[in-house]
Amino acid sequence: MENPMKETPHEKRLSRSEISWILYDVANSAFTMIVTATIPIYFRSLAEGAGMSAANATSVWGSATSIAILILAVLSPLLGAIADYENTKKKIFTVFFVLAIVGGLLFTFAPNWIAFLIFFILSRIGYAACNIFYDAMLIDVTTDERMDRISTYGYAFGYIGSCIPFVAGLLLILNCDALKLPMATATRISFLITMAWWVLMSIPLYKNVHQKYSVPRQSHIIRHTFGRLRATFQKLSQNKKLLFFILGYFCYIDGVYTIISMATAYGGEVGIDSNAMVLALLLTQFVAFPCSILSGTLAKKYGAMRMIKIFIFMYIGICLFGYGLDTELEFWILAVCVGICQGGIQALSRSYFGKLIPKEESSEYFGFFDVFGKFADFFGPLIISACAFFLHSSKYGVLSLIVLFVAGFILITRSENKSFSKGA
Fold first, then answer.
1. CA separation (Å) from 259 to 138, 196, 383?
2. What span, in angstroms and rounded, lies between the C-alpha atoms of 153 and 351?
3. Which of 24, 148, 185, 211 could form a disulfide with 299 if both were Cys (CB 3.0 to 4.6 A apart)?
4. What are the tens digits of pLDDT across the range 225-269?
5. Which domains does the chain have, with CATH numbers?
């Protein structure tokens, strides 16, 4: 059980670099919010307006999400390994940050659903790649003892902060008639508000977060990078504690990401009103804010691993409930339950992993961490899409996620075998 020494009042204060790191979660969570809430609804309107059925729209959307994730999953370890070189992490972060913003501007004004999907995939790749380096920056801004706390603060303030541009956009959409704006135009403006917020709130990270740990630069970077990747594969295979944890993470985070990314698509399929879905997901953000912070406090008392296991059991219950979901009230209840769990399980997984790995190779290891997370995010929506296409209902896909949570629980429990060394 983790039991660090009590912090002094000075140590409890967040440093400038910690605050700046947290603010980037506030920045990019606004994009996560529209990806979860308004973008799938907007895409559905484009697709169905072009004659596509509701089930096929769900299938196509899930497939597009999977494509974006699969592309990045293949590139993640290489990008992470390159970013570990001295003064490189923020430069590669910037490349994908620009891709994410430009892709977002392009899909905002896309003329049809095909163009929308292409530009969305580009933006989603940029967003997800940025997160590899952002997660790895956690090592640079704080200590092992504070990592659970700072990681959960990132998710917590990301949830509540993302509501500001989202609510602004939502009010615009809901009052589009009074403002004499077509709903499609109001929705596009809400996307622009999100992109502007993302850029503005990212400025502190650029000013105050600096790469603290790094690998010395080499004359033949690419060749040296592939050599490091091979060495890391060997380290992962030999370090059973880390290997079993990351395999378990792959399984349970699959279910978590799928529930997040497919919530509105699934709700629309079972007939939940679009406005009700968006408001329920907004409630999820407000619930997630205190629950994420609480999970960090509980992790300090009971241990991050124990809290992760509790959240896995809660997600199994969410899948069972989601399988039978068919009313608006049930969707609201589901939104609250997800809000209780999602920030804690993601934040504590990130910080637990961060304490297991060598700091000077944090981007490379978080690249592998991202591979497992992104391949998980690939398979989950694919399962939902396959069920929607072949069985004409996504309910069975939601139920099948239980298998992933159970497998994840078994594997992370295996990682706690005391005969395994902690070091990476």
1. 26, 27, 12
2. 11
3. 148
4. 666 667 766 777 777 888 889 889 888 888 887 776 666 566 666
5. 16-211+227-414 (1.20.1250.20)
Q: What are the residues facing 324 on neighbouring strands?
A: none
> What ranges in 111-220 are assigned the alpha helix state H?
113-141, 147-174, 183-208
| CB-CB contact of 35 with 29 (8 Å) | no
Q: Percentage of the chain with pLDDT > 70? A: 80
Which residue reads 């989202």 in tokens? 166
C-alpha 63: how far from chain center = 17
Per-position b or e across 130-143, b if 16+ CB within 10 A of its CB: bbbbbbbbbbbbbe
User: Largest Cα–Cα distance in the chain?
Assistant: 67
Give the amino acid at 204: P
Q: By the 8 A CB rule, do 363 and 27 touch?
A: no
What residues are paired with 85 via a beta bridge?
Answer: 215
Alpha-carbon distance of 269 to 188, in angstroms, equals 23
DSSP string, 191-216: HHHHHHHHHHHHHHHHHH----S-BP
Mean pLDDT score, 180-198? 92
For residue 406 the two structure tokens come to 């159970």
